[in-house]
Amino acid sequence: MNKIVVVFLSFILFAGCSNVVEQNEKKLNILWLTCEDISPTLSFYGDSTARTPNLDKLANESLIFENAYTTVGVCAPSRSSLITGMYPVSIGTHNMRTAHDVMGWGEREYKKQSKAFDINGENVPKYSTVVPNPVKCFTEYMREIGYFCTNKQKCDYQFAAPVTAWDQNGNDAHWKNREEGQTFFSVFNHNVTHESRMWMNKDLDLTVDPESVPLPDYFPENPIVRNDVARNYSNIELLDKEIGSKLKELEEAGELDNTIIFFFSDHGGPLPRGKREHYVSGLRVPFMVRFPKGENAGRVTDPISFVDIAPTMLSLIGLKPPEYMQGKAFLGKYKSENPREFVYGSGDRFDEFSDRIRSIKYGKYMFVKNYFTDRPAYKDVSYRKNIDMTNELIRLNEEGKLNDQQSYWFRQNKTEEEFYDCEKDPYQLNNLIDDPKFENEISLLRNQLAKWQNEVGDLGDTPELELYNEMWPNGIQPKTEKPNIDKSDDIIEVSCSTENSSIGYLISDNDFLPDLDSGWKLYHKPLEKIEGKYLYLMANRIGFQDSEIVKIKM
User: Fold this and answer.
1) Alpha carbon distance 254, 181 (integer Å)
2) CATH (domain of 540)
3) At 70, which CATH number?
4) Class of residue 108 by CB neighbours under 10 A (exposed 0-12, middle 13-18, buried 19+)
5) Residue 181 backbone class (left: φ over 0; alpha: ψ -120 to 50; beta: rest)
């Protein structure tokens, strides 16, 4: 039996009666100002170390979500949740870094990689994840009703973004390029806070005093540590300036109060025990939504997960989310009547290191399941060792100069289960799994985690090489069949025999050779025949090679 068969959750989504619904009937624009690798270390979450006047102003006019969590504490699996509304463990996007190049449209040629091993120690080739039917990028549903969708940039979904996902995708993508009066959804991703900027910005002046920065309990008092923590806060100040520039541009164009603005990070911060972790430090992110004129501003304490964002986007524009999506809409016409109770996290392969960990958070409690107790808690991922403090912490640990809380991350063996009171232990350093006082809570979360894994069809126990061979039989990437054309006197109808495929098209006055950046439109209804024009068609399915381009003269 094919192990990539997924058991989908069906959520019944109910309409809400709020100003948000009334606003959405006017077809508002939506703007995502996303950033990379920051935790809620911002003033409106109680940490005023970094000076962020632009974000502070935005926060004063926004719904601030106190408990927003990604699904995986690293970018590519996390972003696969954003674009599909699915848990990575259910669609095979849970192992970090599958594709050779996922920064733009993505390459259609994939090379072997030398340092990726699955849970059985088998070398895994580079590949693009083939997601199950009927999963699609949620932006296709927006494009169908006329939204101009742009992404500047990145995709990083564990698969190459199909041309049907975005009107524009890359450095030149911008809502200003839309047709006059067209409603837009635009993403601007800011990487100035990315982990790599910890060393790439090393020669920039620090704008935050290292002596003033707060240190979590798992960091020792150390000048190298303080300097890197200050660098992180200084990068956040750089981010604030970039956000301010984008907001000014929107306002000057007269679109500020025609636009719903989202701000969030893709996962937790770049410092050790942040990014790549399944604890709060790796999963919790800043998240806020500004409605026109600051309406509905306030704070939301109910938890949300990244798997909820795709259905919420569709709900905000009046579309009922597809039943296959595993999240709950938390805003808009189809807002769920039942707020989320449980937040789920996972950790599998991170670059060259494989493990399998699942976590669940409920209220103030967190439960963790470790499937490989003999593997160390700390993953010696080479990329993170470009950060000075990572190497300093390794040195201090090897010399026995870290206390119990500081060395907890470096433990060589893990217990099968972990349990934390996150209210009393905000950094999850005191494992209470053997405390009989929490027997009922532990049992509840253990059973709920197992139930969720069964419902979503958690693929984590399938070695990645086996998943790869199922997705790419005989190591060959499947290819989408070319489009079929049915012409009549007035219209052209197009179809594709590849299940769950989408079709992009171009209409041109001239005969030319289109590429992936030629501005492909999403085919979703018959096309009017325009005499003398050239029609180009290309079919795609996520994870497949694109079809051959078909050209006809209309």
Assistant:
1) 12
2) 2.60.40
3) 3.40.720.10
4) middle
5) left
| pLDDT over 90 (residue 108) | no
Provide the pLDDT for residue 153.
79
Q: Which residues are catalytic?
A: 75
Are residues 97 and 239 located together in one domain of the fold? yes
In this structure, what token pair is assigned to residue 79? 């972003």
* pTM of the predicted protein model: 0.92
Amino acid identity of residue 176, one-letter, is: K
Q: What are phi and psi of 380, to 5 degrees?
A: -80, 55
User: Is residue 551 within a helix (H) or strand (E), and if so which, with residue range?
Assistant: strand 550-553
DSSP 360-419: EEETTEEEEEES-TTS-SS---GGGGGSHHHHHHHHHHHTT-S-HHHHGGG-SS--SEEE
Classified as helix, coil or strand, 199 is helix
Helix (H) or strand (E) run with residue 235 in it: helix 223-252
Please state the domain count of the chain. 2
**Segment 164-203, tens digit of pLDDT:** 999 999 999 999 999 999 999 999 999 999 999 999 999 9
DSSP state of 133: T
Confidence at residue 5, expressed as pLDDT on a 0 to 100 scale: 38
In this structure, is residue 461 part of a structural domain? no
How many other CB atoms are there within 10 angstroms of residue 300's CB atom? Answer: 19
Region class of 30: left (phi > 0), else alpha (psi between -120 and 50), else beta = beta
